[in-house]
Specification:
Blueprint lengths: L1 H22 L4 H10 L6 H9 L6 H11 L3 H4 L3 H100 L1
């Protein structure tokens, strides 16, 4: 906040300078001329920038400006307590915003954790279902393998039976032809 404090002080100094100059009904050029009479060069444009808080005032310039305006330098300086109070207000507002943001983040965290628990539960259920499906698939694979072997045995027996039948038919044909 040092940079912000410096800017606030410069703006406050500039506002006090403008107020004191205007009370005397002087233009910025009038003030620049009076400062020049004391041997300090301070152009009207520099005074305008100082009054706007856009240019920092140098210490020797501040002393000469106070002397020309016939005021104590303290009269041109901002009340630090007022600036500090403004800083406290700003910091309190920032703290309030941070607390709200933190509360929102905690609520979001709780919601995400709840969602994660549900997803983990669903994942465990899905894993159990996959494991069950694997067991059924393994049983089905074993059943298919057993039935395939059984079918192959039946096919082999059927082939043997057909071969026997073919031989018997051939033998029968041979016997028939020998009888007739």
């Amino acid at each position: 906040m040092v940079e912000a404090d410096g800017l606030e002080m410069e703006k406050a100094f500039g506002a006090a300078l403008r107020d004191r100059r205007q009370r005397r009904n002087w233009t910025q050029q009038d003030l620049a001329d009076k400062v020049a009479e004391l041997g300090v060069t301070l152009h009207q444009s520099a005074i305008a920038r100082i009054e706007a808080g856009a240019r920092p005032v140098r210490l020797h310039e501040a002393l000469v400006l106070a002397r020309v305006l016939v005021v104590d330098l303290q009269d041109l300086l901002p009340d630090l307590a007022v600036l500090a109070q403004a800083d406290i207000g700003t910091l309190e507002a920032l703290r309030d915003d941070a607390v709200q943001t933190l509360e929102a983040a905690r609520a979001q965290q709780a919601a995400v954790r709840t969602e994660l628990e549900h997803l983990e539960e669903a994942f465990r259920a899905a894993q159990a279902a996959v494991e069950s499906a694997r067991m059924h698939a393994d049983r089905a694979d074993a059943e298919v393998a057993m039935r395939t072997r059984h079918l192959m045995e039946i096919d082999m027996r059927l082939g043997e039976a057909r071969e026997r039948l073919r031989r018997l038919e051939k033998d029968r044909q041979g016997i028939k032809s020998s009888w007739f």
